[in-house]
UniProtKB/TrEMBL annotation:
<dbReference type="Pfam" id="PF14534">
    <property type="entry name" value="DUF4440"/>
</dbReference>
<dbReference type="InterPro" id="IPR027843">
    <property type="entry name" value="DUF4440"/>
</dbReference>
<protein>
    <recommendedName>
        <fullName>DUF4440 domain-containing protein</fullName>
    </recommendedName>
</protein>
<feature type="domain" description="DUF4440">
    <location>
        <begin position="13"/>
        <end position="116"/>
    </location>
</feature>
<dbReference type="InterPro" id="IPR032710">
    <property type="entry name" value="NTF2-like_dom_sf"/>
</dbReference>
Length: 131
């Protein structure tokens, strides 16, 4: 992969990741279904594990949190599998303070395009060292 191709892929995967943070995407089962692979799994910062069916049911009913994502890193693991690593400050509706987490997503290229197959958010405790 050339450096220009890597830059384009980085831009595309970050845009897809950020799309999942948008309230209009989170409310749409159709958009979520396109962005999440059929075998999708998530391990939330709380330690709870979710599959695609649960996410498609839960997210449209939730009030979307405010998410500030930054420090993105893209790792190409194979020609059709990439890892997106980043930090996020997440503030749920009605809460005054944001919570910091480290996030990791695996995106797989298939006949539908890039789809997320796995996501994990790990809470960062205050004063927990370098992040």
């Amino acid at each position: 992969m050339t450096s220009e191709q890597h830059k384009a892929l980085t831009k595309q995967l970050i845009a897809l990741e950020l799309q999942l943070h948008q309230p209009e995407t989170r409310r749409s089962q159709t958009q979520l279904n396109l962005l999440l692979a059929n075998g999708f799994e998530e391990i939330a910062a709380s330690g709870v594990r979710f599959n695609k069916a649960h996410v498609l049911q839960r997210l449209p009913e939730e009030q979307a949190p405010s998410v500030e994502a930054f420090d993105f890193e893209i790792r190409l693991l194979s020609a059709d599998l990439a890892q997106v690593l980043y930090k996020a400050k997440l503030r749920k509706a009605g809460e005054m303070q944001s919570k910091l987490s480290l996030r990791s997503s695996l995106w797989q290229l298939n006949s539908l395009g890039w789809q997320m197959v796995f996501h994990q958010g790990t809470a960062v405790l205050p004063a927990s060292g370098p992040v």
